[in-house]
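Worked example
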Amino acid sequence: MPAAGLAEVLPMPPSETIAGGRGAWCTWRGRHLAIVPLADVVPGAADDGELPPLLAVLERDGLALGIPVRATLRLAQCVPPPAGEPVAIVYDEDGAELRLLDLAALFARRPEAALSRATPGRATPGRATPGRDTNGTDAHAGKPNDAAYVVFEADGLAAAPLDTLERILPLAAPPGTTLPWEGRAIPVADLRRPDAAAAGGQVLVVRAGAGHVACVVARVHLMIPAGAGRMYRMGATAFVTTDDGHARASYRTLDLTAYAARRQA
């Protein structure tokens, strides 16, 4: 992998399989990161369905992709091949054969890299052309969002339809198993990461049938009005995307109503 495009190598994080297709995705630095199967990058590479222990994160023009790796070995000098192929055979200074990834070709062939677009308020290398992501993906693809969405930080950034929420409240005290709400105690679901629990939070009171559940999140970020974003799917997961003409942000949607109903059952 070209060292200039390698953001970091880290232990393989928890991931979710992309239903109906190959690969998976995870959360990395608050962004959604598609994990590309190694066999899809290097033809002939062994793929037994198990993710290796490490994840190499590659970045280009503000987008990122994850490549599973078994080990990191060394730095090597080599002459880059002509551009155009995702993988090319090169030779290092000792004459050993290496397969070198062409990042431009790799990102051009992996539209799921658009999931990693940094959210507003976070550093974003490069800048998108109005109406398009930097990898050429049409930023206006998908249908407009029929409902307004609330974007919040839980275990990563996510969005839920506004009409499923009864109220948004400040978290006045560390949550217990229940929270007082309109004269009765309703169950509590803490959606924050363990390391964020001490920093306070906010409460989303979610309707669940005839009852309610208090979902604790780290912070509510913004609201996406109806028609101000676009909806698209990646496997079984739905995302809502916003585009202000300069940068695009994608948020995984959560069905908090269904989640709350399971808590009530």
Q: What stands out?
A: Confidence is low (pLDDT under 50) at residues 119-140.
